[in-house]
Write a structure and sequence with these properties.
homodimer, mainly beta, Elongation Factor Tu (Ef-tu), domain 3, six-stranded antiparallel beta barrel, two-stranded antiparallel ribbon, 1 helix
C-alpha cells in the first residue's frame, strides 16, 4: 500500500516543536497546495466549509507503540508517533484560489505531504 | 510513503455493495484484529469508548478525481474512490480481548487492512 502525495501543507510551523498539538485548538492559518493533477478533486468545496486534512507526519517515529509521556498505548492517544503516522486536522476553508486552499486551524509542520481531503459531516464524524 | 498493515477488520460485509455507506449510520458489529506486534498500542482503550478506525479501501479506484454520481470532486465527497483511499470509521468499542476489539458501527468490507486507531475527542474532531 503505497501513498501518493497529492499536495503540500504550508504553515507557520517550521519544526514539530512549534506546531500546536491539535489544529482545532489553533486559529493558525495555512495553505493547502494541491499538485495540478489533483485540483479537479476540489470541485464543490466552498469557503466557510469545514474539512478534514489527512496528511503524513513525515517527521514522526513509526516504531513507537507505547507513549511513556501519556502512559498509554499509541492507539489510545493522538500522538503523531505511530506505525502509520497519518494525522487528521479539522480546518475551515477561508478561500479557494485555483488549486490552493487557504485554511484556518492548521497544525501541520510546514511542508507536510497532503494525502486526502474529506468534508466534515457531523452526522457521521461525531459520536 | 509506505503503509504498514497493523491488523484486519472482520465484518459481515463480503463485498463493497453490501457495506453501509457510513459506519455511524450502521449498528453492524465487527472485529478489529491487530497483528501481535501492535497489540501493545491498545493499552488504555476501554469498552464504551468511541474510536476512529483508519483503514485502507483495498478495492477502491485510485484514479477517480470527480464523482459523476455526486456531481462533485472526490475531495468534496466521502466516496471511497480517491487517490489515497483511506477511510475513517467512527465505531464504539464493545469488548477488548487481547489483541482483538469487538466494535459497533462498522462499515468496512471484510478483510480490510487496518492502518490506525485514534480515540475520538469531541473537542478536536467536531466543528
Amino acid at each position: 500500500m503505497e501513498l501518493r502525495t497529492i499536495g503540500f501543507i504550508r504553515s507557520p510551523f517550521g519544526k514539530p516543536e512549534d506546531a500546536p498539538s491539535q489544529g482545532k485548538r489553533s486559529k493558525a492559518r495555512g495553505k493547502v497546495e494541491l499538485l495540478d493533477p489533483y485540483a479537479e478533486g476540489l470541485k464543490g468545496l466552498k469557503p466557510g466549509q469545514y474539512i478534514y486534512l489527512l496528511y503524513f507526519c513525515h517527521r514522526a517515529e513509526r516504531d513507537a507503540l507505547f507513549s511513556e509521556k501519556r502512559g498509554k498505548g499509541v492507539f489510545a492517544t493522538r500522538s503523531p508517533h505511530r506505525p502509520n503516522p497519518i494525522a487528521i486536522d479539522l480546518v475551515r476553508i477561508i478561500a479557494i484560489t485555483g488549486s490552493c486552499l487557504e485554511v484556518e486551524g492548521i497544525d501541520a509542520v510546514d511542508g507536510s505531504p497532503l494525502l486526502d481531503i474529506k468534508p466534515f459531516v457531523r452526522d457521521i464524524d461525531c459520536a
